[in-house]
Amino acid sequence: MKSKGEEVDYKTFVAMIEEGSVESVLVEDSRIEFTALNDEGEEAVFITGRMEDPALTERLLATNAKFTQEIIPEESPLLNFFLIWILPMVLLYALWNFMMRRLQGRVGGLGGSEMKFGKSNVMVYAASETGKTFADVAGQDEAKEALWEVIDFLHNPQKYREIGAKMPKEILLVGPPGTGKTLLAKAVAGEAKVPFFLISGSEFMEMFVGVGAARVRDLFNQAQAKAPCIVFIDEIDTIGKSRNLSGITGNDERDQTLNQLLNEMDGFSSEKGVVILAATNKPEVLDKALLRPGRFDRRIPLELPDIAGREAILRVHAKTVKMTEDVDLKGIAKYTPVSSGADLANLINEGALHAIKEGRSEITQSDLEYALEIILAGYQRKNAILSKEDKLAIAYHEIGHAIVAAKQTDSAPVNKISIIPRTSGVLGYTMQSEETDQILMSREKFLNKIVTYMGGRSAEEVILNTVTSGAENDIEAATAIARAMVTRYGMSEKFDMMALETINNPYLGTDVTSLVSNETSAKIDDEVLRIITFAHEKAKEIIRENVPKMHELANYLLEKETMTGEEFMEMLEEKDDGG
Ligand SMILES: Nc1ncnc2c1ncn2[C@@H]1O[C@H](COP(=O)(O)OP(=O)(O)OP(=O)(O)O)[C@@H](O)[C@H]1O
Ligand SMILES: [Zn+2]
């Protein structure tokens, strides 16, 4: 993309725009490339630095110059938020770009991996070095309870030996990413004051056959010498994947590594005081041999925290930073459904960074609110250049979601609406907040959610008489809910309470097995479509009934770019004068 061109300063660039000599502009992340007529009246390429200039869009729109913005989205910290939120609009090409970058990243990673032989690079922490105790782990009381026994055993293996008790020496921590599996394992070592060996399953997997197995052997030799101790194997599913699942050709490297692991696990007895903790978020792919009685037969489930758990986690992390007295951690906990402990730790850190940026010595409520948006939607893209038509469509789309949500009973209140583009590729979003965690969902609630998802596109149709690609995520999320209603929750009369699909991995909602014939499968599709069509019609009806309010609110949002739930409700409930 980089071409040679004459460098000019930003002022000259603006002057050339005003003069009308600029023909096309490409705005990249750190520079702007443009073509314009030079002094000789010939077309030439120029380069200038990238400025934080909010008026640039306006200036360019006022001319006939063609301009393009290179959008380089980054991975949103919480893509799964799409399911809870009313979905943000995402540019198709931004997503594509994002996927390409991920792909490239992966290829790059492979090529760059080092080839290590022999000694494994297992990290060893002395007891004091993990520095973690149960006090660092908020919530997860059941897991802590179960692990206390292990700690007691490590404190005093003799006691168990004398009475002839067998300790479960292999324990599997199962739960979604970021729920504190690693943290908990470290805390066990910290509480027991024993050395902690940490290795990640993916580190066992080498490009050359035999190296993984050698590493396993090496790890266990070191551990036996340091007993009592804890060996923690993160991502055990990367080595322990069922041999049936690895395809016809098989994967010799993985098989050998897994066999070695099984051998080692059989070879040492718990009396030595080596406890193996392993973590996975894909327990169902594990090889049966790993789960036989006597091996990882004890499982400790870790769940995403509920509202009280989230508050507790925020409090743990708030202790390590300076914060004003008046921050409302309970409120933040309310707005972060389906957030993991890792997300919440990250939120506090983003808040701290923002406080520094603003020159404050303590984190305030506004810093946390700023961080909340980053965690939910990604960083702001201050210089994203959107055409007037796009901005308009995004504003109506988001107001569409919000009005549809507000006009339905039994739907969560709107908390915030924004049309500031984000680095995640999100162009706008509407956030709703639930007062409590939703554990049981009624059919009405599901339907309301789907109708709300339909609100964005419906607004485009009714008001602007067009449709955009911005509803991509809405469509995906709505379809997923409608499908689950039919196939798993028995909420369609046609199939009564018949199970049509089973879910393989509760942490990856999409990993399902169909239980039905092709014929039934087609009927399921019909049923899903029926629900979607019904919801779409309902959303359009709500929009049609509120056209004057749509205009009023969308104009306000266009001007302000963000609005709070209160502002929104106030304007919505105000009597129309004359309308
Ligand atoms: N219950 C919790 N209490 C306090 N902090 C937590 C909790 N759960 C997670 N965290 C924070 O999140 C960070 C990441 O958690 P951790 O790495 O232990 O998760 P994990 O379950 O091992 O994730 P992964 O599956 O991605 O490896 C921790 O270092 C900690 O800061
Ligand atoms: Zn949408």
UniProtKB/TrEMBL annotation:
Cellular component aspect of the GO annotation: plasma membrane
Active-site annotation: E398
Membrane topology per record: Multi-pass membrane protein
Co-factor remark: Binds 1 zinc ion per subunit.
UniProt enzyme class: hydrolase
Role description: Acts as a processive, ATP-dependent zinc metallopeptidase for both cytoplasmic and membrane proteins. Plays a role in the quality control of integral membrane proteins.
Protein name as catalogued: ATP-dependent zinc metalloprotease FtsH
Species for this entry: Trichococcus flocculiformis
Gene: ftsH
